[in-house]
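Hi all, a correction to my earlier message: I attached the wrong file for Beta-glucosidase. Here's the right sequence:
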Amino acid sequence: MSLNFPDNFLFGSATSSFQIEGHPHAKGAQPSIWNTFCKKKFAVKNGHNGTIACNHYELWEKDLEIIRRLNLDSYRFSVAWPRILPAGEGPPNEKGLDFYDQLTDRLLEYDVTPMLTLYHWDLPEHLQAKGGWAHPQSPDWFANYTRAVASRLADRVPLWVTFNEPWVFLHLGMVTGEHAPGYRDPAHAAMAWKHVLLAHSRSVETLRSCSESIEVGLACNISPFIPASSDEKDIEATSRMEAYHNRLFLDPWLKDSFPDVADHAFGRYTPAWTESERSEAATEIDFLGINYYSPNRIAHQSDTFLEVGIRPPKPPVTDMNWEIYPEGLYEVLEWAFERYGPLDLYVTENGCAYTDSVGNGIVKDNRRIHYFKNHLEQCSKAVSDGIPLKGYYAWSLLDNFEWSFGYEKRFGIVHVDFSTQQRIIKNSGYFYRDLITSVKEGKKELVPYEDPIIFDKHESSNQLQNE
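and the right structure:
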């Protein structure tokens, strides 16, 4: 494996607050829309919820010790809005801020660069009751929340992400109803689209007013869209879905361009924009984070804009039934650089879900090792070709609450036994650690790890619970 990465390249891992923290009522916190959604019948597989999750809220010191042992350069985490502003508005809850304050200090003590995400889908339930992102005041709610967090942490956190995957929480949360808040309401989604666009811009402005030295960006899921055939109708259907998925938010933010896709997708519900609002939405950022998992294969189904045929993925696939297509990572990096550059890029999420084999304190997950190896090779190629890729974050640090799939799907490089909260670093975690070490030592090649027992001599992370 070629290791063409600069010395300052950041190798990290990522998590999100709701998926790992648990304890939604701790020290004055209040529920988020995901706490409410989990109570809906059939909303989450097996009736799972995030009340405990990985218990990171209590075990954060052990989890950061794992980060140190893995030799990570950076850690991307999100802040839970309901911990900071339990009612969504008003004065900040200092005890909620204390949690992220100590987390940040410990990361810096370990020489790990924090990347902080402000919104990873856990909107305070109190704000949802007022209309959520469809409420006209929601951009100001988000700006106030941004100020509360940045006022405490901007002096130490250098990398800030406003929103994680806005298309996902808009489409799955308000169009299909598969995620919180569980709506199937195109009018609500259309207004939310407008307000999230404005909320990001006001958040960026707020962050820059708090510190001139920080870098501000976004994390968006971007995928290749591949027509099922050379038929013109398949190509046209693919084109409109690519625009809806990849450009609905990014074009207004980064190109000052409002794609026709919004009018087609929202129809008569498309919100009106003043010229000043359009101008406000277009905001300069320092970097774009790309969350990449798989391509989408599209066929014509009807002339209705969002009605297309989703073709089965080509094998091999992960346990999510997501096609493994490492070349797609290079393709989306190149696409983002050519369309939105000059702009620094990060891979802010990339990973795979598999059912892992656990025995004798060892988790053998060779398929995940191969997944990371093949995708990191595409990152190396991108760097070699002059694409300004500055870092890579493996999703995820821990097995966690995987949204509507509950605890069935495991993405972590660290195994979590949810009945005991025991952590075991998986073989993929050791692979990643050794790759990072090789890069830091100036090596240009990494011996591929093919043997499933090659990691047997590593220390077992069972010890982490007993130290």
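Sorry for the mix-up. The CA atoms of residues 150 and 210 lie 6 Å apart.
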